[in-house]
TrEMBL record, chain A:
Alphabetical UniProt keywords: Membrane, Transmembrane, Transmembrane helix
Residues in Nucleoside transporter/FeoB GTPase Gate domain copies: 43-154
Organism: Desulfoscipio gibsoniae DSM 7213
Residues that span the membrane, as ranges: 6-23, 44-68, 88-115, 136-158, 170-188
Name this protein carries in UniProt: Putative membrane protein required for spore maturation
Pfam family, one: Gate
UniProt-listed InterPro entries: Gate_dom
Keyword Membrane among record annotations: yes
TrEMBL record, chain B:
Record Pfam families: Gate (PF07670)
Domain of life, per lineage: Bacteria
Entry keywords, A to Z: Membrane, Transmembrane, Transmembrane helix
InterPro entries, alphabetized: Gate_dom, SpmB
The keyword GTP-binding appears for this protein: no
Residue ranges occupied by any Nucleoside transporter/FeoB GTPase Gate domain in the UniProt entry: 47-147
One annotated Gene Ontology cellular component of this protein: plasma membrane
Annotated PANTHER family: INNER MEMBRANE PROTEIN YJIG (PTHR35793)
Residue ranges of the TM segments: 12-33, 45-65
Organism of origin: Desulfoscipio gibsoniae DSM 7213
Protein name: Putative membrane protein
Signal peptide: none
Native organism taxonomy: Bacteria, Bacillati, Bacillota, Clostridia, Eubacteriales
Length: 196, 179
């Protein structure tokens, strides 16, 4: 799937540029894209290093485990393949909490830690996503954000009478998306194993 | 309600940065040493994502700069207009799962042009706030552990994004509409 989307974007992009008679924009766009990618990764180094350190402390102090225990009924249902007291559970819970609070820069490192822990549980092909990873990412990408700070800020800048009036509609839309994400994850997993 | 949640957001990180080392200390953890031990992998984790991010962002960048995005919008806009979906927000809907920066740029532009309190402004705000950059997140998270076969996660992610889009249009019509 990702192969087709990726190739599709490049092929269509180059063709359209050629038809429009400005094929040279492709060169510039490709280099710019690569630059943004590397810059993003570089920017991530600092924040990931910081949160990896804090996470290690939280783990050593038994905090991650305590947090994971608190929400166990939900996580048992969502992640049946992850053992009860595994650090992956703690990292997943931390990531989702940070997401809900709208702390984007804290949630990403937590998410990467969760992925590393989930990869340790991967008994199959190390290049292939596991069930738990798919569920985690479905939740992560559709997760409710209580306060979408960036967009509220932009509404404020452009003189909105009530910048926060979209909080309610945002929560409604995101809740619908999250429900579908969880259901689709279950359905597609079932179809995946049946098709094999 | 809003002030409580926004206070919570403001305090969350400082409180975590204070409490975690403090509690660890009380539990007899060698705090400095443990922190450094954990932080060790920061660099390699971030660097490992580079090839995956480059691959994805190059493709997105080409698709956008070539005019292919505008072409797709031109094809679908008339149909969508008929079902109450304003064509102005279509570029945003397409870019949202691909690139956080680009979709935020489009949203900002729409809010600037139409005003934040217009129907379109409110709709695009809801769309921006309620969804995530699915492709970027998948690329980054899977990339950091070297996974290149995503199985069905693109489909579940995109169907969630699509639902969020429909729900945004629906709830905006209910609360802020009709246009």
């Amino acid at each position: 799937m990702v192969n087709y989307i990726w190739l599709g974007m490049i092929v269509i992009g180059v063709l359209v540029a050629a038809i429009n008679g400005h094929v040279e924009v492709v060169t510039k766009a490709a280099l710019e894209g690569a630059q943004v990618a590397v810059q993003t990764a570089i920017d991530l180094i600092a924040i990931i290093t910081l949160w990896l350190g804090i996470m290690k402390l939280a783990e050593a102090a038994g905090l991650v485990r305590a947090l994971a225990r608190m929400v166990q009924p939900i996580t048992r249902f969502l992640f049946p393949s992850v053992p009860k007291d595994h650090p992956a559970m703690g990292a997943i819970v931390m990531n989702l909490s940070a997401n809900i609070l709208g702390l984007g820069n804290a949630s990403t490192p937590m998410g990467l830690i969760a992925m590393q822990e989930l990869q340790k549980l991967n008994r199959g092909d190390p290049k292939e996503a596991t069930d738990a990873m798919c569920t985690f990412l479905a939740l992560n990408t559709s997760c409710i954000t209580l306060i979408p700070t960036t967009i509220i800020g932009i509404r404020l800048i452009y003189g909105s009478a009530d910048p926060t009036e979209i909080v309610g509609t945002t929560i409604f839309a995101t809740a619908a998306g999250m429900t579908v994400a969880v259901c689709m994850d279950r359905l597609l997993r079932y179809l995946y194993y049946r098709g094999r | 309600m809003f002030s409580v949640v926004s206070d919570l957001s403001r305090w969350a990180v400082p409180v975590v940065l204070l409490l975690v080392p403090l509690i660890a200390m009380f539990r007899g953890v060698n705090v400095f040493e443990k922190f450094v031990e954990g932080a060790e992998d920061g660099f390699s984790t971030a660097v490992k994502t580079i090839p995956f991010l480059v691959a994805m962002l190059v493709a997105i960048s080409i698709f956008r700069a070539s005019g292919a995005l505008d072409m797709v919008v031109g094809i679908f806009a008339p149909v969508l207009n008929m079902v109450g979906f304003p064509a102005e927000v279509l570029p945003h809907a397409i870019m949202r799962p691909l690139s956080g920066g680009a979709s935020l740029g489009i949203a900002t532009d729409i809010i600037k042009t139409h005003g934040p309190d217009s129907f379109i402004g409110r709709l695009v705000s809801t769309m921006q706030g309620s969804s995530d950059t699915t492709f970027y997140v998948l690329t980054l998270y899977f990339g950091s552990v070297g996974i290149s076969r995503y199985r069905y996660s693109i489909i579940s992610g995109l169907s969630a994004d699509f639902t969020t889009l429909i729900a945004s249009v629906y709830v905006a019509h209910k609360l802020f509409g009709p246009v």
